[in-house]
Amino acid sequence: MLLLMTVSWLALPSYVKRVAxxxxxxxxxxxxxxxxxSFSPLTLTLTAGGIQLFEPDQKTxxxxxxxxxxxxxxASLYHRALxxxxxxxxxxxxxxxxxxxxxxxxxxxxxILERIAAMPKSDTPFRFSLANLRLQDGSIQFDDxxxxxxxxxxxxxxxxxxxxxxxxxxxxxxxxxxxxxxxGSTFSLxxxxxxxxxxxxxxxxxxxxxxxxPAYVAYLxxxxxxxxxxxxxxxxxxxxxxxxxxxxxxxxSGDLQLDAVSLQDKLNQPLLKIGQxxxxxxxxNLVDNAxxxxxxxxxxxxxxxxxxxxxxxxxxxxTAAKQEAKQEAKQEAKQEAKQEAKQEAKQGKxxxxxxxxxxxxxxxxxxxDFSLNKGRVHFADxxxxxxxxxxxxxxxxxxxxxxxxxxxAKAALIALSAKPEQDxxxxxxxxxxxxxxxAAGKLNLDALQLGAYQAYLNRFLAAQLSGRVSLNxxxxxxxxVKLDETDISLDELKLVPKxxxxxxxxxxxxxxxxx
Length: 515
Hints:
By secondary structure, the chain is α+β, with helices and mostly antiparallel strands. It contains 5 helices and 23 strands. Pfam families: DUF748 (PF05359).
């Protein structure tokens, strides 16, 4: 043991310095320098000093850290994950430059993000638990060449008790806090501790008041497939860190509100407007990946749907390019794996048997009360309608009670009403189980104007159809939609051939029932 500790103390620093520089150059295309590294085998602590990450020219510094401390926990072996008891960065300095506003903007770190995005993605989640994260005396200089503006953040202090994507224990943790000076003005978020509670609960308040979202969209590091024209964010959230029974949890709770939201696509066509969205978050457990929402309300939403003549929906087109890139990356990864397997077979090497991979934990959602009020949908159809037609659905109201995607959850109660056109109405009252996708309930369609949907009949019917249809039915959807106890009524039905012959009329009320 003494020999092993001595070897690690002597050899590990130089090995880490060399491998870190090689991997950063290979994976990110950047030069990394580390002036000095030391390792304590007794505490499993790695300390690095004089860290610099350079720009592509390999001369200009993009990131520098005076000192970094990483204290590895012996629990890493037990959990088969990266577990650290402490992560400390002293005097980190970041220099950010925005050189273009085209697309999602061009920054001095855009090349790094592009390389990371092109890397093959693994289905196996990277498990980590980092405790006592501290950032001391940090600074960020942001040079916006587009707006000819400079933003300086100095004296940045950050403390997080822990971050983890699996349950783990933490013996002690630092007070959560965030403070900085932004162009000389002080900004501070401090934690609220409960020292006499056995959970050692500490909360960091995240309070925002009418934050203008479009003002910050331009600085996002990744491309958005749409434009945020307007929107204001207000939050009263608590990020809570607690430890109980040797288990550490990170919980988010509180209220979130969005006002006057407007989204457009890249061609400046409208996608979505929301008068107000507000939600009361009971608890979001970031470790267990479980979220409980007490109330979720959307007022005056307006949605634009457009189906083009190729069958592509405008909303689906937003992510089409990204999905194609993912598929190409998967295919390339498969081809590389096959080539490696063939090469190893030629060399007489035995390919190890693939082990089952851990899948990322499914997000468990429980929603007690959801309501949507005064909604509108504009549906433009250039595929099925001849000629193309836009249908407006107004006065949409939706209420959902006790919704959960848990496997053993009861079906949620749903009440939906809408007006497809004037003097028409659609109602559904029933239940829905998201875990099984089963639905059942009462459907009522009143005074649907057939003439309003003539464009959908032109391909199949050489006549003009008019009249009203009403329907009452019991609907059940288990693998397929089934209608029971159905009453259909037709009123003032008229069919006029386009050849100008006498119309076929049904003036009287016609009703039929199907059991």
